[in-house]
Hints:
single chain; alpha/beta; 8-stranded mixed sheet; 4-stranded antiparallel sheet
Amino acid sequence: xxxFVELVLIRWLGAQVRPLAHVKNLVLIGCFLGLGxxxxxxxxxxxxxxLAVILLSxxxxxxxxxxxxxxxxxxxxxxxxxxxxxxxxxxxxxxxDFFLTIGAVFAMVVLTTVPLGQIAGEYMExxxxxxxxxxxxxxxxxxxxxxxxxxxxxxxxxxxxxIALGILLLYLGPPWWLRLAxxxxxxxxxxxxxxxxxxTDGRTLWSPYNKIEIHRMEEVRTPxxxxxxPGWVLRVxxxxxxxxxxxxxxxxxxxQYGIARWREAFYAYNFPYTLDKPAHVLVVGAxxxxxxxxxxxxxxxxxxxxxxxPLIIDFGRSLHPEQPYSDPRVTLIEDDARAFLRKSTDHFDxxxxxxxxxxxxxxxxxxxxxxxxxxxxxxxxxEQALARLKPQGILVVxxxxxxxWIATRLxxxxxxxxxxxxxxxxxxxxxxxxxxxxxxxxxxxxxPDLSVGVPPEALGAAPGxxxxxxxxxxxxxxxxxxxxxxxxxxxxxxxxxxxxxxxFPGKIRFDRHFFFLGAGFLLVETRTIxxxxxxxxxxxxxxxxxxxxxxxxxxxxxxxxxxxGSIPRPILYLGLASSLVANWIVPASAALGGxxxxxxxxxxxxxxxxxxxxxIFATSVRATESLSTVLASNLVGAVLGGLLENTSMLVGIxxxxxxxxxxxxxxxxx
Length: 670
């Protein structure tokens, strides 16, 4: 239940509370802290579990309220990392509101998970520590399984919440009035969440990745008195995502009366086919089908369309005015764009990068903090795309670039991948930029209407460091931790101190060994999930299977220690240190061209430090008498690990192995 409630909170609060987009892992860290404090309270006579349902319901209601149209409509006081015109906190009042909001959400998440940690710790008392810990990890694995099933059916969060609250109510004892009050609050929370989904003028559905709202555009009446339906609008995470437009030439007259910037959109989607007449086109980030419809209008014989979100695909099939996905020339594939580029053996006359993400901020606020576009917009990704072109193929990348340095960075990345400067043209919706590269790219003499490259002086910004698989932070202007993240991290630490002082007015002592084991494990786990996402694709299934695999690895480590006894710690620490250094030295890209066996071997290679860490933890747990106490230290240590994970924005993802190495060194004891 601890893990499942954590997933419920991440999914609902991440989609509803816009300021969380700029505070990485806040809900995750809050859950770890709450569970850890709960384990620390396990030996107290007074149980907090009677408050479990009320606290969870209150936190879900807080997220519902903050997500209302008149709720918090801005992100944090972001600086150069912001993209696509999202409203930021600018005035002093808005900045204060931002920090009060994230502080309140963090505090409520912590308080919500305290009772779950406490009751789990109470059940563990009197049991053999390693056995109890093994059962606890198996329970976490069951939580991931529930998540996998609910995600497969694209069920909305209020159903997730109803399941969690229903199970928590089963364990609620007397008095009767508390059970009645808890049930009433739980019903109110679920109804409010459902109402928030259905209270708009369109439909709201939840895919495994996104909260998606679909609205019909306002009917258009032309001067001849006829009414026309211009199409649909998709919103993702409460922000504009895409219009499903009929961009056939005969609709131009209608658009003049009802669709702003129709000519610009028509030009943008059709532009690639003024460069060449390709026979086979790959569209990655196909969305609901606008790019595919443009290829069909141009007479392309064969189109492969790749889109990661199954519900967006369904909207394209059922609602797009031009019905591009119904055309027999189109092959539709549900997959991560980078994973498809790695696995595909086809070669294409043209590859079109559609708008692969809402591109609204430094972080995507998708379920589970999956950052979909990180490994799509890197130098290596463009190299893979160029390698999939035919001898005279063309790569076309469309991107919204409100910040000029993002446009210049993309130009520099494609130039490095292709070995020459791409053509470029500014296009639709004010900040749109389109880049063209590849062996079939027209020369300036052939297309004098296009400029070569995007001169930094023309756009007023230098590109800064290029986004790579090691440092895949396209929206960061430099290798730095944004001030918003630093300030929010300090705030989370202050909330942590206040809660510890309130819950433990007397002296509290955490075990240093288990504290740093928790911090180090979360660092390595985060790095491993990111790098396995690069190997297999950043889909929700891959993420769920990866977390499940890590839990199975922990169970295996427990089994080894239970079966053969404790292993000398110096040997385990030597194995852990060696594997961490090796993970830092050997890049994930070393396996990307080597086939299935190479990919599987690299995955095992990245998982190896977690196995050594699991053996160290199991060996230490086997020797302890009070599991709840050490788990408290371990989970609170994970808070430090979650905050240290932000250093990846400075040093890159592989270098987290070295940060973890330092943390694990702090856990050493005789």
